[in-house]
Each structure stands twice: as structure tokens, then as C-alpha cells.
Amino acid sequence: MLRDPRARGALILPPIIQLFIFSSAATMEVKNIALAIVDLDRGPYAADVEQRLAGSRSFTRLPRYANVAGARAALDREQVVGILVLPSGFSPDLAAGRPASAQLLLDGRRSNAAQITAQYVSNVLADEGAPLSGLTGASEALSTATPGAGAPGSTSKPNAEVVIDNWFNPNLDYQWFMLPNLVGTLSLGVALMITALSVARERELGTFDQTLVSPATPVEIALGKLLPPLLVASVQATLYLLIVTLLYGVPFRGNLLVFYTAVLTFAEACAGVGLFISSLVRTQQQAFLGAFAVLLPFALLSGFATPIENMPWWLQFLTTINPLAHMLRLMQGLFLKGASVASLAQDLLRLLEIALCTTAAAVLLFRRRAA
Amino acid sequence: MSDTRARMRAWWQQLAAIMLKEAKQVSRDPSSWIIAVVLPLTFLFLFGYGISLDTTVIRVAVVREDDGRDARALAAALTDSKWFAVVAAHDRGSGERLLQDQLVKAVVIIPAEFGRRLDAENTTAQVQVLVDGAEPNTANYVHAYVNAIWNGFLAARGLERGSPRPVPVSLEARYWYNANAVSRWFLIPGSMTVIMTLLGTLLTSLVIAREHERGTLEALYATPLTRGQILIGKTLPYFLLAMVSMAVCVLTALLLFQLPLRGSFLTLGLVSAVFLVPALGQGLLISVTMRTQMAAAQLGLMTGYLPAMMLSGFLFDIRSMPPWLQVITLAIPARYMNVSLQTVFLAGDLWAVLVPNMLFMLAVGALFFGLTWRRLHKRLD
Fold first, then answer.
1. N or C, which end of chain A is more exposed by having fewer CB within 10 Å?
2. Helix (H) or strand (E) run with residue B118 in it
3. For residues B87 and B176, what is the distance between their CA atoms, to the nearest angstrom?
4. pLDDT class for A33, splitting at 50, 70, 90?
5. Using the beta-carbon criterion (under 8 Å), do A315 and B49 form an inter-chain contact?
6. Does A104 touch chain B (CB under 8 A)?
7. pTM across the whole model
8. Do the beta carbons of residue A102 and residue A87 sit within 8 Å?
9. Tell me: the pLDDT tens digits for B313-347?
10. Pick from B125, B143, B174: CB nearest A105
């Protein structure tokens, strides 16, 4: 198969393009937020809130609407993710030192982006009740004119603070999380697809019987089918390693030997699953679907998109037999965390067990079907 | 007059013949039924339970080096919080090891002298928090939770000493269409899009490539069938298959996952049918372009399924992507489908939202079918 230059291109190029595109796409950060503002207060404090929102990098558009109904139409069309309503009485209340409240209406259809937006807005508003440093001259006069508002602020402890230190990824860069994950996930797809379609293709084209009458034993043929994915996976892994570290500047803090051991063991585990499927089915279409039916759960239950800890316990249990879950932990450990070989050994061992199981199962089934 | 009518009848008969042939092929293959019913159910199940953005309890280690009242109160506030499951660590070293071994997501260190520094006017009491930043989303939640607990602790302490902190501006957040902001409610419509893409694009991408690979394509061309008949005949069975599985998905979503359906079934059917135009069109285009099923499958996976997962706004918000990528997403039918489905399920039949999205889907679909048409023509020469 490697002789075909087009197939060779198809194996190397697309994964790299995917690496580029998906690492840019896959972010849980919420940027470029558009938030509608309905200012029924028209006072200095409302203007200050608006100004602070505009000053935050997260908000790019803050269209103003005269009333909630107008803003709601924009929200329905997904032009804004939420509506901040500053009620009348907002400024007078704050100026008098009374608690004030604002309303935030969010688009629950995009609940994740909406929740993060709510976090940002509440951060901005939390500062509003404290002494009003960000206010213009006029409103500063307001707050000094009402000593009640300033006094409690000064009694709070300014000499206590929380210092947060982010390990492994100091800037909480989402790409640093995503790229090592993509290295694992993309090689899963390739290793699985190559083997899943291999036998089915020969069966469909009628060349399978020819291979069987060759002097090689079925076990030898099966093992031969498992070799190409290992080769492709290690070539791809090398490419990924170079791109991720050199181009994206993600640190690689682990051991190279462990990295390649992990890649090969993982590819073997996936190839075993692929060959198993391929021996089971009759057509390539079926093989493709079979591979797919495995690929999706593997990807979903690996911690790739959403954390494993968020899943119910029975699904968390299933992740222990998912090779990708172990592979992703290894990649995170190797790239970001610089984990010691000893602490990676557990996942590596599990991966090896899975690889042995899938290979054995695939070869056995292949021999039975070939006989 | 009768001549044209006879020709019309012949045209329909031919179309019926190829459709019957394809339908037979689809329905005889037991895997088709697995595809239409079992696969969507499994996927929806996995999506529904497996994917959740609602953070559950986070494991955190607390190192308390101070034995004073304040330090205990803060540690207790951390332990009592519903967000954290607290593991006690004896000293910094063991706390850091827990973090390194991925057993906890964060370590909160309340240093020695914490209480005294808090009482004294001229010193700063610091609480140190080490967070596992490898996964930024969870790290951000940890930041927010720790800050909330810290502020609560300071407020309670101030209240005890008779100096309440100023009441800050309170924010009442209300989620329209999804009052509890359950992530499942917006993820399940997205999962349906992925499943429909799988059936519509991936399966059809193999249809003509298969004939080509087996060498039966020439035979098909030798029949009196026109291009239009071949195209319709090849796609209609898959269209029906996808609609059946969509129905299965919708029932599961409503009954098992308690998703509300605020729009009508009719609109839902219409949106699904419209989405299948670009989805099937894309599959056919791949199918006539690629010569082997393997290559077609790969291309279908890359241009159909993966973008539906990653670039459609299903998991990742499109507006947060870099501008060049946002432009690319305009060509992805799944993007329009996601918005439409989320709207029909959660908001209702908002035609102002649905009509533009459906028009986009039809436009992309027309493009795909047009290109397929041209490529089929070239093959004939």
C-alpha cells in the first residue's frame, strides 16, 4: 500500500492539516463575545459598567438596545449571547450605598458560552460595589458625597490575597492542552482505519483467497497486516512531535523513548481492533462503519473533549479499557507535566495489556475466518 | 403528446427501478438496519452521558501549616464547599506530589503565620493555590471557585468582627431556553447533527466509489439511465434511512433525556430534510471524485464527520475561533443544522432564525449537487 504515492500522501498530509485546523478550533475559552446592553438607568454607574465591559478583552461588541424586546430579537438570531439589563435606580442605589442589582439574560441554547459570559460579567460587576476607582470625575464626586458607600470598603482587608500559580501550563493556553491530545487522537484514526479496511478490501476485490494460498500461514499474514499501521503511526508521531514543539512551542518535558514506546503500543492496540473488525465484516462499507462505531466512543470517553471526571461512574469505568484514555494521559504527562517514567508506567502497562488482548483476539479471529 | 407522456412514464419507471435496486441493496444488508437504529441510539447514549461540560466535584488537596482559628475556618470553608472534594495533605511536598501524580487538580496552601498576618495591619496574608493548568477549562473553574470561597471567608470574618464588607452589585443571571444551563440540552441537538452527517455524508461517499472499484460503474453507465436518475436513485434510500434514524434520535432525546421540544415535529422534519440535501450532496461529490472506497472513506471522515464534530459549534463556540477559521465554517452544513436544531428544540419555531439557516444549507447543497452532476458528465466521455 505504501507504494501508492497518492495513498502515501493521504496518510501524511491530512493529519497535519487537521492538526492545524483543530488545534485552532478546539478552544473552550470564550472570546469575541457580543453582549447586548439595555441601559434603563442612564446614570454614571451604568456608564461605568459599560466602559469596563468595553475595556475587557473578552467583549468585542456591546450593541445598545432601548428595550429588552429589541435585544431579545437579536438574541434569538444568535447575534448576541446575552443581554445585560441595568435597571433604573441602579446608579442612585449605588451612590446611596444601597445594594443594587442588574439582570443578565443569557442564551441557554449555547449554555457553555453563556455560563462563561456570566462569569466575566459578574467579575466586572463585583468591582462596581467597591470604591469606584474606574469612575469619571463626576461620579467620584458622587461617591465622596455619600460617605456611607466609601466607608465599608476601607474596612475590608486589603492585606489578604490569594496567589494562584498554574502548573504545567502557566498561561492556561488551551492549545497546549489540545495539541498533545490531538497527537493521540489523530493516530488512533489512522491506525484503526488502515487495518479495518485492509482485509475487507481484499475480500471485496477477491484477492483475499490469493493471499491465503500463498505459502504464508494465516498468523503470518495477520501479523503482516498489523505492521504498516505501526510504521505509519511512528512516522506521523515524529512529524507531530516536531510541529507541536517547534511550531507551537509546546514544551516536551518527557522521555523520547517512552514517547515512542507509547506511540507503538497504542498503534498496536488500535491496529488489533481494526483487524478484528476487518475479519468480521464482508464489505468495506461495513468495515468503515464498524471502525467508526469504535472510533467515536474511544474519542468521546477519553477526556479529549470533556473531562472524564464529569462522566457518571459507569462510563468512568469504561474509560479504563479505552486505549485512547491512557494514551492521552501519557501525552499530557510527556508534553506538559514532565512526569517521571515511574508515574507513567501504570498507563503504559495498561496500554500494553490492551494491545496484547486486541492483537491476540484479532489474530485468532483472522485464523478462524481464513480457515 | 402521448409520446412525451410515454417518455415520462419510462423515465419514472427507470428511476423506480434503480431506486428499488438500491433500496433492496440497503435493506438486505443487515448492517443498514444496525446503522439506522442501533448506531444512532448508541451514539446518542454516549453523547448524552459521556459528554458533559457541567463540572462535577473537583479533587483538591489542602495543606494547612497554621493551626489558628482563621486557618481552620478557611480550611473548613473549602471542605464544606459543594465544588471541592478535599484531601488533607501533611505538608507542601506531599501536596505537590499529589498534584504531580494527577491525583488532585489543585493544592491550596494556607501558610504558617496566616492568622497572625491577617490580624496585623502592615503584613499581607497570602494563600497559595497551585492549579493543574494542563486542562485550562477545569483550571478556570478552580480559580473561580477558590475566589468565591475566599471572598465568602473574608465576608464571614468581617461580619464576625462587626465590619461588613460593602454589598456588591448582585447579578441575577437568567438562562432563556435552558433555565438550568444544562450542557446536555445543547449538546444533544449537536449530537444529532453529527449522527446525520455520519449517515448522510459518510455512507453515500462510498456509493459510487464502490461501483467504480468493482468495475460496475461502466455497466451502470451503459444502462439507459440518465445522470439525474442515477443521482436520485442512489441518494433517496439513504435519505430515507437517515430520516428513520433521525426519528429514532428525536424520540430518544425526548423520552430518555427529557429534552423539551418547543417547536413542532413538522418543523423538525423539514429542517432535517433540508440538512440532508448538502449532507448527501457532499457524500456523492466525494464518491464521484475518489476512485477507491478507502480514499472516499478517508475524505468523508475528514471533510464531513470531523468538521461536524469540531467546527460546527457543537462542542466549541464558533465565535471564539480565529477569523480565518470562522470563514471556513461558513461552508460547513452542520453549522447551520446545529443552530436550527437547537432553536427548534429549545426555543421554538423561530422562522427568523430557521429560514436563513435553511437557505444556506440549500445553497451549499445545490453547490455540491451541481459539482457532482458535472463530474458524472466528465466520466461519461
1. C
2. helix B114-119
3. 37
4. confident
5. yes
6. yes
7. 0.76
8. yes
9. 888 888 888 888 889 888 899 999 999 999 999 88
10. B174
**DSSP for B145-206, written as a single string:** HHHHHHHHHHHHHHHHTT-PPPPPPEEEEEEES-TT--HHHHHHHHHHHHHHHIIIIIIHHT
Q: Determine whether the interchain pair A167/B101 forms a contact, defined as Cβ–Cβ distance below 8 Å.
A: no
**What would you report as the CA-atom Rg of chain A, rounded to the nearest whole angstrom?**
29
By the 8 A CB rule, do A75 and A117 touch?
no
Q: Can you tell me whether residue A117 is helix, strand or coil?
A: helix
Task: Name the residue among B308, B307, B172 with its Cα closest to residue A82.
Answer: B172
Residue of A nearest to B354 (CA): A77
Neighbouring residues of A169: CB distance < 8 A, sequence distance ≥ 6 = A176, A177, A336, B133, B134, B136, B139
Q: Which residue of B has its CA nearest to A112?
A: B183
In B, minimum Cα distance to A316 occurs at B50
Chain A residue numbers touching B169 (CB-CB < 8 A): 94, 99-102, 125-126, 128-129
Q: Which of A289, A311, A313, A328 to mutate to test the interface with B (most CBs of B within 10 A)?
A: A289
Between vectors from CA A260 to CA A257 and to CA A264, what angle results, nearest 5°?
140
For cell 474509560, the residue is A319
- pLDDT surpassing 80 at residue B36: no
* B53–A94 CB contact, under 8 Å: no
Identify whether the C-beta of residue A363 lies closer than 8 Å to the C-beta of residue A223. Answer: yes
Chain-chain contact of B297 with A197 (C-beta, under 8 angstroms)? yes
Q: Output the average pLDDT for chain B.
A: 83
**H/E run at residue B126:** strand B125-132
Give the containing element (helix H, strand E) for B369.
helix B351-380
Number of residues in chain A: 371
Most B CBs within 10 Å, among A17, A248, A285, A318, to test the B interface? A285
The answer to whether B54 contacts chain A (CB < 8 Å) is yes
Contacts of A276 by beta carbon, 8 Å cutoff, 6+ apart: A358, A361, A362, A365
Which amino acid is located at B72 in the chain?
R
Q: Cβ of B319 and A118 within 8 Å?
A: no
Please compute the mean of the pLDDT values over residues B161-174 and round it to a whole number: 65
- Which chain B residues are within 8 Å of A28, Cβ to Cβ? 53, 136-137, 316
Residue A367: the pLDDT is 82
Tens of pLDDT, residues A42-55: 888 888 888 888 88
What 8-state DSSP symbol labels residue A305?
S
Give pLDDT, residue A323. 92
Residues of chain B with C-beta less than 8 angstroms from the C-beta of A250: none
Cα A306 to Cα B53: distance, rounded to the nearest angstrom = 6
Q: Which residues of B touch A98 (CB under 8 A)?
A: 167
What distance in Å separates residue A3's CA from the closest CA in chain B? 15
Residues of B with Cβ-Cβ distance to A107 under 8 angstroms: 175-177
Asked whether the beta carbons of A255 and A341 are under 8 A apart, the reply is yes
Beta strands in A67-167 (DSSP E): 82-86, 101-107, 160-167
What was the pLDDT predicted at B377? 64
Is the CB of B214 inside 8 Å of chain A's CB atoms? yes
Please say whether the beta carbons of A70 and A95 come within 8 A.
Answer: no
Q: Which is it for the CA torsion A108, B356, A32, A87, positive or negative?
A: negative
Whether the per-residue pLDDT at A1 is higher than 50: the answer is: no
Q: Do B178 and A111 touch (CB under 8 A)?
A: yes
B125-132 and A33-39 as β-strands: parallel, antiparallel, unpaired? unpaired
Confidence of residue B19 (pLDDT cuts 50, 70, 90): confident
Which chain B residues touch A177 with a CB distance below 8 Å?
134-136
Inform me whether the pLDDT recorded for A334 exceeds 60: yes
